[in-house]
Amino acid sequence: RAFVTILFAVVLQYSNVTSYSDVKYWHDVKHAFNSAVGTTFVLLTVVSVINMTLMTRTFIIRSKLGDVIKKFIGVRIMLLCTEIAPRVLSAFEKETQTFKDMQLVTKPVSFLYVDGV
To answer: Strand pairing partners for 93?
Structure first.
C-alpha cells in the first residue's frame, strides 16, 4: 500500500497533470485502491495479532523471552490501531463511502460527523 501511494505521488510530481479533473482522477484512483485493500489489511492485522498471541503462549518463546505477553502488548495495540482506527474515523467523515454505508448506524451520534478535507 505504501508503494502504491509513493507511486501515485511520483506520477503526479513528474507528469503534466495540472488540471483539476486530472488531479481528481488520480486522487479517486488512489482512494479506490486504498478502499479495496483496506479491508484485507484489517483482516490480516487481526489474524497476525491472534497468531502473535498464540505464539507467545508457547513454551519455547516463554523460556527464551520471559513474559512476552506484556512485552508485546504495545505492538499488538499499535497494529490494531493503525489499521482499524482510520476505518472507524472514515465512518464519521462526510462524503466518504464508509460514511454513506454506515450513516444509518451512526445517526444517533451525528454530532461526531466531520467534513472531509
So the answer is: 114
